[in-house]
TrEMBL record:
InterPro entries in alphabetical order: Aldolase/citrate-lyase_domain (IPR005000), Citrate_lyase_beta/mcl1/mcl2 (IPR011206), Pyrv/PenolPyrv_kinase-like_dom (IPR015813), Pyrv_kinase-like_dom_sf (IPR040442)
Source organism of this protein record: Rhodococcus oxybenzonivorans
SUPFAM superfamilies: Phosphoenolpyruvate/pyruvate domain (SSF51621)
Protein name per UniProt: CoA ester lyase
GO molecular function: lyase activity; magnesium ion binding
Residues involved in Mg(2+) binding: E136, D163
Cofactor(s) needed: Mg(2+)
Positions annotated to bind substrate: R70, E136
Keyword tags: Lyase, Magnesium, Metal-binding
Lineage: Bacteria, Bacillati, Actinomycetota, Actinomycetes, Mycobacteriales
One Gene Ontology biological process: oxaloacetate metabolic process
Pfam families reported for this sequence: HpcH_HpaI
């Protein structure tokens, strides 16, 4: 599995200043955990949190989770120390650095170069640590194409609805929810789609940000469902109660997974010598061809990454095997 295919259905935010919450996160079923030095960490707690994070990463116990640290954004004076202390201290036990409020490709280039210098200095594998870029304001959104293409390290582009809503004066106080007064569509459709295009054009994952009403799991499912329907790979979770909903929403339904695997199996058979070398064939009531195979590959890939098992297995009819019809 390549780095950008690793599942990120649920990306759990954990304050870097809380050893207790970090310890708890190790046992949860999130695909990714990010230890936060930015907004979930008070300014006076940041220096101590860097040390807490380094210790927690080096201690291990994270299983197959993707281990990420969110540093402070580049308009603050904290960013370079966040990166240097965390990566020098725990670079071999860390998968990605998340950079918030990215506004330009130059900011990604800075992080890429800094990581390379630290990796060389420390004798770490150069280029292994990935980058996750958060898009959280108008400047970031209009530059997202260049941001997504700025470094081979980049693995995900993340929509940050809270900062985004504040930065464009959107009239809602509930992060991730629709602003009242705009009843004719989804107010987040444009940024979500814009980010998704930039991500896909560069082979990256697209991740939706937080939904803050942590007790409203139905609301979470609804918002996550919209992002998943567009093609997003996952969403942030702020509370253990949102994890199962995220994992479920961003995995294919069992019937869709089975159908995708069956399309792949049938197409492979019918295009083969024994299957009759056909390019477009009927599978049940549906005509399948090369484009169907490509769509099926996406769903099957998501299901395989989520560890799903195929329950309804298509097989070539004995008749078909004999005659190639
Ligand atoms: C996340 O960082 C957000 O601002 O929504
Ligand atoms: Mg933010």
């Amino acid at each position: 599995m390549t780095k950008t295919q690793r599942p990120r259905r649920s990306c759990l935010a954990v304050p870097g200043s809380s050893p207790k919450m970090i310890e708890k996160a190790k046992g949860l079923d999130a695909d990714q955990v990010f230890l936060d030095l930015e907004d979930a960490c008070a300014p006076l707690a940041k220096p101590g949190a860097r040390k807490t994070i380094v210790a927690a990463l080096n201690e291990g116990g994270w299983g197959s989770k993707i281990r990420v640290v969110r540093v402070n954004d580049l308009t603050t004076h904290w960013t370079y120390r966040d990166v240097v202390e965390v990566v020098e201290g725990a670079g071999e036990n860390l998968d990605c650095i998340m950079l918030p409020k990215v506004q330009s490709a130059a900011q990604i280039a800075w992080l890429d170069l800094t990581l390379t210098q630290i990796e060389k200095t420390m004798g770490f594998e150069v280029g292994r640590i990935g980058i996750e870029a958060q898009i959280e304001d108008a400047a970031g959104l209009i530059n997202v194409d260049e941001i997504a293409a700025a470094s081979a390290r980049t693995e995900t582009i993340i929509f940050g609805p809270a900062d985004f809503m504040a930065s464009i004066n959107m009239k809602s106080l509930v992060i991730g929810e629709q602003p009242p007064g705009y009843e004719i569509g989804d107010a987040f459709h444009y940024p979500l789609m814009r980010i998704l295009m930039a991500a896909r054009a560069n082979g990256l994952q697209a991740i939706d940000g937080p939904y803050v009403q942590i007790r409203n799991v139905d609301g979470f499912r609804q918002v996550a469902g919209r992002a998943a329907a567009l093609g997003y790979d996952g969403k942030w979770v702020l509370h253990p109660g949102q994890i199962e909903a995220a994992n479920h929403t961003f995995s294919p339904a069992q019937a869709d997974y089975d159908h995708a695997e069956n399309i792949l199996a049938a197409y492979e058979w019918f295009t083969s010598d024994r299957g009759g070398r056909k390019g477009a064939v009927m599978l049940g009531d549906e005509m399948i061809d090369e484009a169907s195979r490509k769509m099926a590959l996406v769903i099957a890939g998501q299901g395989r990454a989520a560890g799903m098992e195929r329950l309804d297995v298509w097989q070539a009819e004995p008749e078909t095997v004999k005659t190639g019809v």
